[in-house]
Amino acid sequence: MSQRNGSTGEADTPGALWGRQLKRARMAQGFTQAKLAVGLGFSRTTLGMYETGKDVPTREVAEKCDDQLQTGTQLADMWDDTNWYPLTTLHPDWFQRRADMDAKLTRLCEFAVGPVLGLLQTEEYAHALFGRRYPEMPNDVEANVIGRLDRQRRYFAPAGPLLIVVMDEGCLRRVIGGPGVMARQLDRLLEVGALPNVRLHVLPFGLDIEQPDTSMSLITMPNGREWLYSESLTRGYLTDDPKTVARYARSYDLLRADVLSARESVALIREAREGHQHEHPQPERRPLAQKQLQRSQWGQLHRNSPRIHPRSRPRP
After folding, report:
1. What is the pTM of this model?
2. Which residues contact 296 (CB under 8 A, 6 or more apart)?
3. DSSP element (H, E) containing 110
4. Does residue 101 sit in helix, strand or coil?
5. What is the pLDDT of residues 40-67, one digit of tens each?
6. In what order do the strands lie in the sheet with 226-231?
7. Residue 118 to residue 123: CA distance in whole angstroms
């Protein structure tokens, strides 16, 4: 949660709070920004961005600041205790409105091509995926993973909203993070597919049927209002235009009728799981993601599986 600045009444970001402490320590030692920046090995502009909270430092930077300013481990400890990614900033601006719908919607129908749908990803799969996208920005990777895990909670809880997913077979076959990561990801699909509020369907290779050109979501809100959502790499498209929603809903219904049934899809997922035979040791959970989950009191999110309540009845 953001804290309030006593003089202005404005909400401070976590970065601004840490930066203010850095500035106080610098001034207490009689350092100018230019002098400290030289000692740290980067520009005065970069230091200024840290002090104003406009950029997030690494823990290594915090340690170097402690060394230069003779503050023991004060700044590094504060870095450890800082929730750098509060819930209000876990998603990019263009996706935030869509993410907010997860807390209220009653039904979500998804068509996924490419990677496994974000709502179904394990933490290590998400890490591997975002690691490819942001190879030199670990903080961005952590923020995106945390946001993704948070969105999953409601769907895996008792009496969660209805979730119907049609996924291209490529989601199962494309290797993200190595065979071990993929095997555990498909184990997650098998577990989630057993939930009473979830149905997973696979569109197999070689099935010549009409399908959307890209991933899309059909969203039903408690008041019955329906929305269509789709996105590119950097932009989202959200509409409740009745004609547009109806057209894509019809396409989705036809697609779902033609793809594999839920039981047939389980068999194909198991087959794909066997294809990822070379298991790798499961890596330790990334400490930053773990800290953020604990601070936000999100409960125990297991690396490879959510808290799942098995379905007691067979699939239709």
Report:
1. 0.60
2. 83, 86, 87, 150
3. strand 107-112
4. helix
5. 987 888 888 889 887 777 777 889 999 9
6. 198-203, 162-168, 107-112, 216-220, 226-231, 236-239
7. 10
